[in-house]
Structures are given as C-alpha cells and as structure tokens.
Amino acid sequence: MKKFLILVSIILYQFVSYGQEISELYTDTLHLTLNEAETMFLKNNLDLLAQKFSIDSAKATVITARLYDNPEIDFSNAFYNPTTHTFFDSERSVQVSQLIKLAGKRSKSIDMARSGIEVAQYQFYDLLRTLRFILRNDFYDIYYRQQSAKVYQVEITSLQKIVTASRELASKGYIAQAELLRIQSQLYTLQAEYDNLQTGINQVQGEIKSMILANPASYLIVAPVSDLNKEVVTGSSYQSLIDSALVHRPDLKALQSTIAQSNLNLSLQKAMAVPDIVVSAGYDHLGGYIKNFNEIGISVPLPFFNRNQGNIKNAKIQVDVNKTLYESEIVKVKNDVTTNYITAIRSEKLLRSFDPEFENVMQKLIEQVTYNYEKKNISILEFLDRYDSYKQNVLQMNQLRFNKISSIEQLNFSIGKIIFNQ
Fold first, then answer.
1. What count of Cα atoms within 13 Å lies in the side-chain half-sphere of residue 250?
2. What is the average pLDDT score of the chain?
3. Is 201 inside any structural domain?
4. Does residue 420 lie in a domain region?
C-alpha cells in the first residue's frame, strides 16, 4: 500500500517533477506563443537579414545603371625641342571626348536593374514563406512532442519507484524474479523511447532557437495549441485555393519577373548591336597644319562583322528557358496545392471520426485501473499493460493532431499565404 501511495503522489505531481527535470538540464526557460515566435523571427532571423541585403545590392545596381559614362581628356606636351634646345616649350595638344550611347542602351540598362530589384524582393518573400512555414510547423511539433513527453515522464517515474520496491520484494521472495525482470524491461524500453523523444524535441528546439536568435541554453515551453477539432479545410473551394496560389506564390512572381527581365535583356542586347558614337573636341599648339589648331570630331565603329549576334541569340534562348520554367512551376504549384488539400481534408476527417469523449473515457478507465491495482484486483503486470495501452492512445492522438495541423500548414505553404490557422 505504501508503495502504491508513493506512485500516486508522483502521478499527481507529474508537472512539478517534469519542470524540475527541465531546470536541471537548461539554464533558462522561455515561454513562447506562436505570435511571439513569429515576431522574434521577423526581427532577428539572420537569413532574412542577409536576403534583405540582396535587395539593397540590387538597388545599388540601379544607381550604377543611371550613371553616364565619364568624359575622357588627353593631354600631351613635347618633352624637348631640339631646335630651340628647350624643355616643355613647344608642341602641346589637348583633346576631350565623350561616349554617347545610342538606341536607348542607358534606359534599357536602368530597366534591367530595376527588374533585378523586383526579382530580389520576390526571392526575399519566398524565403520568408519557407522559413515561416518551418517555424510554425516546428512550433506545433514541439507542443505535441512535449505533451507526449509528459506521459512518458509519469510512467517512467512511477516504474522507477515500482522497480525499487519490487527489488526488495523479490529479494525476500514475495514476487518472482521474472516479474521483476518484466518491470525492469518495461522501464528500460520507456526510458529509451523517452530519450529518443527528448532528442527530437531538442533538435526541433535548436532549429527554432536559431531562427529567432533565442538563448541556446533556454528550454522552450510553447503555449497550448487549440485542438482544432472542427474542419477548417473541408468545404473550402478547391479552385479558389488554386487561384490564390497562382496569385500569391512569391516563387511564381519571381519567375514572372525573371521572364520580364530576360525580355528586357533581349531588348538591351539588340540595342547593343547599334554602334555608339564618340564626340570629341581638341586643340593643338603646333602639330596641325596651322598654329593653334582647333578641332571637333566624331567617331563610330562600323558594324560589318560584330553585330552582337551571339548575345542576342543567347538572350532569346534565355527568354524561352524562363517561360518554360514558369510553365513547369505552375504545374508543380497546382499539384502541390492539390496534394496538400487532399491530405488536409483526410487528416481532418480522420480526427473528426474519433469520438470526442474517447480521451475522457480513457482517462476514467486508467483511473479505474489505478484503483483496482490499489485494491489488488489486478496484478502489477496487468497494471503496466493497461497503462501502456493508455500511453499508446495518448501518443497516437497527439500524433494525429499534429498531422492535421501540419497538413494545414503545408497547404498554407503551397498556397503562399496563411489562409487557415491564422
């Protein structure tokens, strides 16, 4: 009886003991809601910060494209005059020249640079979409894993006390050695499963802490997640989700911008086939047919051989390549939305099919099992088997809930916008 009272006391204070174990392993505990995690992510994530620098870099390219070519000046002076035997006192000339680009090369280069900003921005939003999905999915993953860990903690703590008491009983011959070995085997199995579970929790927590720049030594306790028993995806318009994905997916928009950029590049390469001119003005002190000779001039290359044919052809090919990639991506987006839509509906219906009172009934049954064990109506092995059955049901329900909410988050990701689980 005393042994059982110890067991019951530990069960009643499972959350306290669980918290104490956490405090021993970590120097800090961070309680976090999903909104708080997303706020820290948007503020602190280094990958997003690096991608923002790419946008700034693209903007700097526009500044460069706006600049005009610098004029050139050429000055020369005779070093020694053998007639007068003097230095720096005879022939000198000055010439100033300016390159003038034709066929709108400068404006086309500016448009190309501006399109680069658009591509960089959509790439930033696509990275944001990907990282936010990972963050939200990891948040839910941690929550349900921690709920499962509590079940393990209770049973392990109970079995540790039972094993201690059973060793003493076995040494006195009150229980068989085989029964002690059975209890020990159950304990070791649970400890191994619990260790694997904690390893998984630590790995997911490490990923989240890296994304939000939290203290590496802190243990995350995430806020309770709604069970979401209602069906939020079932009944939604499938075609509207497809249309929404085609509108909101930043990777599609990035490809559209890339197509526009490749068309601008084709236009620029065609313009490059038009020769530019160089306008010049000069002065020559003694080198001309008259003294103090002044001149103006213009030079232009004759496009007999090089008309930029190779770059023009390559630009045309790149336009076709980007269009093909865009069409291919549209097919993938539609398939992603379809697959995730079906998966989310299936997960919703599966969870919905369970009796909402199932868990309450299971909780009452395990309480009855505990009561019967206390009254010696069932053996220790029967108690362990039934408690193990209870544990498996709790773990299964946690996994089903995570599968459902994860499938909905995957659907949001494939659409490119948080429509469900807002």
1. 17
2. 87
3. yes
4. no
Mean of pLDDT values over 90-104: 91
Other CB atoms closer than 10 Å to residue 412's CB: what's the count? 22
Question: Phi and psi of 282, rounded to 5°?
Answer: -145, 165
- Residue 153 or 175, more confident: 153
Tokens 């990035």 belong to residue: 254
- Give the C-alpha separation, 340 to 411, whole Å: 5
- As a dihedral over the C-alpha atoms of residue 169, residue 175, residue 180, residue 186, rounded to 10 degrees, the angle is -110
CB-based contact 373:323 (threshold 8 Å): no
Q: Which domain holds residue 145?
A: 2-81+90-415
Q: Is the dihedral of CA 11, 13, 15, 18 positive or negative?
A: negative
Strand 72-77 relative to strand 218-222, pairing = unpaired
Contact by Cβ (8 Å): 301, 120: no
As a dihedral over the C-alpha atoms of residue 317, residue 321, residue 322, residue 324, rounded to 10 degrees, the angle is 140
> CB atoms < 10 A from the CB of 415, how many?
26
Strand residue runs (E) in 169-241: 218-222
Residue 25 lies in a domain: yes
Q: How far apart are CA 36 and CA 208, in angstroms?
A: 12
Total domain count, the chain:
1
Nearest to 409 by CA among 137, 224, 211: 137
304, 306, 307, 326 from 301: Cα distances, Å:
9, 10, 11, 39
Determine, yes or no, domain membership for 421.
no
Lowest mean pLDDT of 58-62, 79-83, 200-204, 255-259, name the range: 79-83
Q: Which of 95-109, 228-242, 357-371 ranks highest by mean pLDDT?
A: 95-109
CATH of the domain at 333: 1.20.1600.10
Is the predicted pLDDT of residue 235 greater than 80, yes or no? yes
pLDDT in tens, 332-369: 999 999 999 999 999 999 988 887 777 788 878 877 88
Lowest mean pLDDT, pick from 37-46, 173-182, 386-395: 173-182
